[in-house]
Design a protein that fits this description.
The structure holds 2 protein chains of 2 kinds. By secondary structure, chain A is an alpha/beta fold. Chain A is built from 6 helices and 7 strands; from the N terminus they run αββαβαβαβαββα. Classes of the chains: A alpha/beta, B mainly alpha.
Chain lengths: 171, 121
């Protein structure tokens, strides 16, 4: 009798473990952090072309939508999303700010000359510390900002569906 | 006098070295407790990915700015969520995690006690 109870509980336990692990199989192992960053972080950075030092407060201060895009010339997905950014940059309602991540100046300049410049300002992040202020961990990454608040965050390259979503926001 | 000056300079250099060594020690301790988010199963300390290199630099800068270990953890959990810490904090999501070993220990103790009582009888 006692043996049967032990056997019964063992089976229940194994089923329990099996269900948990089986459900775990379908979980995505891509981690997206649930950050508390709602407002834009404060930082100072040098601009790409004029080498002027800018504070984050002076960049996002208009009553306008801003798109912060973290990019680098060595990043292949950035190349793919670039045409979408150029398209989006044509709109008057949104201003696209670039954050050049850990890049070589000459390569980045070549990238911009080759593919066009959708950015109104490009900031430089030579050592990757400013991207960490934004809670970014891979590039490309894009933040939609309105009134100093981050409305939406896109990890990975943008696609036409996401661009439509952004266009809906800025309508 | 000259000798004294020389001695003083040497002394100062050595004290700075000790300070620096302490900083590196705490930096390593912190980065070992941080998960490299884009690597698989590596700490920031172990990893040489772009993200980990930058994060090491951030930790170093924060230490130089006078942040304590806890303040750095708090800063990073705010940016990246608690997942970045290898040592999970004690809160309502982790009660079970923290108490489970204790429960198992008590359960095992109870079994042993029961057996002992049986043997005595």
């Amino acid at each position: 009798m006692k043996n049967r109870i032990v056997y019964f509980f063992l089976v229940i336990f194994l089923i329990f473990v099996f269900v948990i692990f089986y459900r775990g199989l379908s979980n995505s192992n891509l981690y997206t952090p649930n950050t508390d960053i709602k407002s834009i972080p404060e930082f100072t950075s040098e601009t790409f072309f004029k080498k002027k030092t800018l504070n984050s407060k002076d960049i996002f201060n208009n009553n306008k939508f801003y798109l912060l895009n973290i990019w680098a010339s060595w990043c292949v997905p950035c190349r793919n999303e670039h045409s979408l950014l150029i398209n989006l940059g044509k709109s008057e309602k949104i201003e696209i700010i670039g954050l050049n991540y850990k890049d070589n100046f000459n390569n980045a300049e070549k990238f911009i000359n080759e593919l066009g410049n959708p950015y109104s300002t490009i900031l430089i992040d030579r050592d990757g510390t400013k991207a960490i202020e934004w809670g970014a961990f891979g590039i490309p990454e894009t933040f939609l900002i309105y009134e100093n608040k981050i409305i939406k965050r896109y990890i990975g390259p943008l696609n036409s569906k996401l661009v439509d979503e952004i266009k809906n926001y800025i309508k | 006098m000259k000798f004294l000056n020389f001695f003083l300079v040497i002394l100062i250099i050595f004290t700075f070295n000790i300070l620096k060594a302490d900083e590196i020690k705490i930096q390593n301790k912190i980065t070992k407790n941080l998960r490299c988010l884009i690597c698989q199963g590596q700490s920031v300390y172990d990893s040489d990915s772009e993200f980990a290199i930058s994060l090491k630099l951030v930790v170093k800068n924060k230490i130089e700015e006078g942040f304590t270990e806890d303040q750095i953890y708090k800063f990073l959990t705010k940016k990246y969520g608690e997942w970045i810490l290898y040592d999970p904090q004690f809160n309502k999501n982790t009660y079970f995690l923290w108490f489970l070993p204790l429960l198992i220990f008590l359960f095992g103790g109870a079994i042993i006690l029961k057996k002992l009582i049986k043997i005595k009888k």
